[in-house]
From TrEMBL:
<dbReference type="InterPro" id="IPR036291">
    <property type="entry name" value="NAD(P)-bd_dom_sf"/>
</dbReference>
<keyword id="KW-0560">Oxidoreductase</keyword>
<dbReference type="Pfam" id="PF05368">
    <property type="entry name" value="NmrA"/>
</dbReference>
<dbReference type="InterPro" id="IPR051609">
    <property type="entry name" value="NmrA/Isoflavone_reductase-like"/>
</dbReference>
<protein>
    <recommendedName>
        <fullName>NmrA-like domain-containing protein</fullName>
    </recommendedName>
</protein>
<dbReference type="GO" id="GO:0016491">
    <property type="term" value="F:oxidoreductase activity"/>
</dbReference>
<dbReference type="InterPro" id="IPR008030">
    <property type="entry name" value="NmrA-like"/>
</dbReference>
<feature type="domain" description="NmrA-like">
    <location>
        <begin position="6"/>
        <end position="238"/>
    </location>
</feature>
<dbReference type="InterPro" id="IPR045312">
    <property type="entry name" value="PCBER-like"/>
</dbReference>
<keyword id="KW-0521">NADP</keyword>
Length: 329
């Protein structure tokens, strides 16, 4: 009998990516009405009344997790990767509870094929350790999937993470700005997550690779200048310099350097360009093969979030603190 995943519990539903994934699951007829959320007891987040919330102690105790995971088919885990011990406890509790699939807290760059060398050793150490721990548990009833998306385009553009400042109309271009880089929209990432759970056999125990665009810094700049109807200020740097500065900040415990470290490496190409020479999983998951960059940039510039939110589906509210360590997607 083919494996069917229906009851889904989401961890980290109120983070940068969480609302897009929760919306995609909640609007999918396969999962609608069977989506639940795991939340720390101290959290002030609220969700739509039709979504059940399992509140557990802030330390994520094993026994409380087992209880929350009972009768769940799958877990979508978006807990911060800096909390490695918590991820291991989640995996162990999922196995104990009989969960069939966990989507690991990946949602980023091509970690499986990258050597975790400087300056990204600290950034990706957690992901590597968590994935290896999960692999050591294969055969105990729990399968896994890691989703590789590159950088989040809409969030990264609005936040300045990918090197473009919408307020000052300033672009920081690394090297010539002509190296292709992979980006994915938050909404597309949400749709991909739902599609993975709808195709458990095809996505078991492996990484799934998708993108919305494979584009360059110069092409993004051109789209931004068209959308804003003005010429931007361009500051030039190098991938090596951005990576070095980012690493120096991280070494001081300053996690504001994570963007420079990641994008400095991503804009350098090589193994970071995971679409090069690979057939992506967009078609398998029913996703567009090449979304329109110019249209997306125009929407973001107009302040329209690229998120598919159904009626009353994502009325999530939270008093968000300033993060000392950002969620490393």
């Amino acid at each position: 009998m083919a494996l069917i995943l229906k009851n889904i519990i989401v961890i980290g539903a109120s983070g940068n990516l969480g609302p897009s994934i929760l919306s995609a699951l909640d609007s999918n007829p396969r999962f609608a009405g069977d989506i639940e959320v795991l939340s720390r007891s101290s959290s002030k987040t609220t969700f739509p009344p039709h979504i059940k919330i399992h509140r557990v102690s802030d330390s994520y105790p094993f026994d409380e997790l087992v209880t929350a995971f009972k009768d769940q088919d799958a877990i979508v885990n978006m807990a911060p990767i800096t909390e490695v011990a918590t991820h291991k406890t989640i995996i162990d509790a999922a196995i104990k509870a009989g969960v069939k699939r966990i989507i690991l807290s990946e949602f980023g760059t091509n970690v499986p094929e990258l050597q975790t060398t400087e300056p990204l050793t600290e950034v990706y150490r957690g992901k590597v350790e968590i994935r290896k721990y999960m692999e050591s548990k294969e055969g105990q009833g729990l399968t896994w999937t890691g989703l590789v998306v590159g950088a989040f385009f809409d969030w990264g553009l609005e936040d300045g993470f990918i090197g473009f400042d919408l307020k000052s109309k300033t672009a920081t271009i690394s090297d010539p700005g002509t190296t292709p880089t992979n980006f994915t929209l938050l909404a597309t990432t949400g749709l991909a997550t739902a599609a993975i759970l709808a195709k458990p056999a095809e996505t078991a125990n492996r990484y799934v690779f998708i993108n919305s665009f494979r584009t360059t810094q110069n092409e993004i700049l051109s789209a931004l200048q068209t959308a804003t109807h003005q010429k931007w200020t361009v500051e030039h740097t190098t991938c090596e310099a951005e990576s070095r500065i980012g690493k120096e900040k991280l070494d001081r415990g300053d996690w504001s350097g994570v963007g420079q470290a990641i994008m400095g490496a991503s804009y350098s190409g090589g193994k970071y360009d995971f679409a090069e020479g690979r057939t992506l999983d967009n078609e398998l998951l029913g996703l567009p093969l090449d979304e329109d960059l110019e249209t997306t940039v125009e929407r973001i510039v107009r302040g329209e979030q690229e998120k598919e939110i159904g009626p009353d589906a994502m009325m999530i509210t939270e008093d968000l603190p300033v993060l000392e360590k950002p969620v490393l997607e």
